[in-house]
Amino acid sequence: MKLPAEFITKYEKLLGTAAPAFFAAFDGSVEKGFRVNPMKPTTPAMRQKMTAAIPYSPIGYYGKVNGNSLEHLAGAVYSQEPSAMTVGEVAKPALNERVLDLCAAPGGKTTHLLSYLKQTGLLVTNEINPKRVTALGDNVERYGARNTVITNETPAHLAKALPGFFDRILVDAPCSGEGMFRKDPAAMQYWTPDYPAECATRQREILTETVKMLRPGGHLIYSTCTFAPEEDEQMIAWLLQTYPEFELEPIEKTAGMVDAKPEWADGNPELNKAARLFPHLMRGEGHFIAKLVYHGAAEPKEPKLVRSDLKPEQRKLWEGYLQQTKLAALPGLVLQAHGDQLYGVPAMMPVTRRLKIFRAGIQLGTFKKNRFEPSYALALASTDLDLPKLAIDHAQWEKYVHGETFQLEASAETGFTVLTCDGLPVGFGKVVGRTVKNFFPKGLRFLATDENTIL
Ligand SMILES: C[S@@+](CC[C@H](N)C(=O)[O-])C[C@H]1O[C@@H](n2cnc3c(N)ncnc32)[C@H](O)[C@@H]1O
Question: For residue 338, which of 128, 178, 242, 269 sits 20 to 30 Å off, Cα-Cα?
């Protein structure tokens, strides 16, 4: 791989005798990986693929998964480069925490955080770029999250709305991307010798706002996919100098991860608690991760939490739908109507005015004239919910994702039913006798075959 000349000179100086092995790794092959979603059943096809476990993640495996497969479309697997999985493992939230993923699209780390929150607590996942936030929304929906609010905001606006609110914040920072040169050589076209310093300016701005949103005792996880010391050790050195209330926590180094390099910043020996991932030392691309605890003193005021705003006729329609199911209510959610759409907003979410909310929670369905139509998102989030379910086979699933109506061998209970294939909820169908009417979203339909959907 032809690397920029200044990049070579810089890392020859920094790495010394390790430089030849580092540069040789750029000509090595890119490792693929995937994570399994612990909130969804494991299919036989997944079991066959889950052979090479990633040593530092109990839900990670080496190998490639197909984006058209049942398992991917139903959110049971997520394709993620193995090094990137260290971030979710270090961030690992506890149940019921208030978590912010500040730079989140397309959602690799967000879905990893969701795996540990297991539908509890609150995840606010934010993406500043309005084009990229859509992919984040798709991935959160597929994953089946009911505890997530998606925002499309600047860190400064979020900090104004949610001061001192979060137990844990992940800043997977926009960076110079040097660690991705091997996987995505196009990333090199943006690189100049000054690019890391430019990225560092933006990272300092992001971190300045992040600090305002942490509660005392909260954790900050900072990660990049670059080798540049300006954005890695020097960023954490700056944070520690500017905010002495932060303390680094050690990251366990396994599978070839190494201590970060104090000598690449201000020499503070604490910096070696952070981790570096180099492609010549481990099976994955380049990353940097630091975990810090915040010892700030001021206890923030508890914010006012969201409340239900349904009109009586909307409540009646929703309750009518619940009566058809065995669901008593949805745990941890506050019901709100946004136009004709019903949302389940995580009950731990504060009232926030003037924030650009891309999705206020899980979209549960649509109020139609005199009836309620449940949504695709509800079906995908229904693994542990008592909704009517009907198992279909792979051939029927192929018809379903193509948008076709199909016939059952025997008639089933009439009404909206979650269709499952290999145990995975795949969407709603409306059963009338032996016929299943298709409610797979129009924009997602495709011509599925046995060949193009192999996991
Ligand atoms: C490394 S990527 C995030 C990858 C994501 N965490 C994942 O695992 O899928 C960084 C993200 O930060 C966003 N970003 C760019 N400028 C930003 C800013 N000033 N504040 C917050 N986020 C920003 C980018 O749009 C990009 O989506």
Answer: 128
Work out which ligand 1 atom sits closest to the CA atom of 129. 25
270 is in an annotated binding site: no
8 A C-beta contact, residue 187 and residue 163: no
Q: Is 188 exposed, middle or buried (0-12, 13-18, 19+ CB in 10 A)?
A: middle
Give the pLDDT confidence score for residue 197 in this predicted structure.
98
Output the CA torsion sign for 245, 202, 18, 28.
positive
Contact 325, 386 (CB under 8 A): yes
CA 131 to chain CA centroid, nearest Å: 16
Residue 132 Cα to ligand 1 middle (Å): 9
Nearest CA to ligand 1 atom 13: 103
In 98-194, alpha helices (H): 108-117, 133-143, 155-161
Handedness of CA 375, 379, 385, 391 (dihedral sign): positive
Which residues are marked as active site?
Answer: 225
Least Cα distance to 240 among 217, 265, 257 occurs for 265
The tokens 């310093």 sit on which residue?
Answer: 197
Contact assessment for residue 127 and residue 105, using Cβ atoms and an 8 Å cutoff: yes
Give the distance, in angstroms, between the CA of residue 67 and the centroid of all CA atoms in the same chain. Answer: 16
Cα(156) to centroid(ligand 1), Å: 14
Give the Cα separation of 309 and 299 in Å (integer).
30
Q: What is the distance, to the nearest Å, from the Cα of residue 298 to the centroid of all Cα atoms in its chain?
A: 30
Q: Whole-prediction pTM value? A: 0.97
Which of 103, 139, 231 to probe ligand 1 with, by most ligand atoms within 8 A of CB?
103
298 is in an annotated binding site: no
Closest to 251 (Cα-Cα) out of 27, 88, 420 = 88
Q: What is the ipTM of this complex?
A: 1.00
Q: Which residues of the chain have pLDDT under 50?
A: none
**pLDDT for 327:** 87
pLDDT at residue number 372: 96
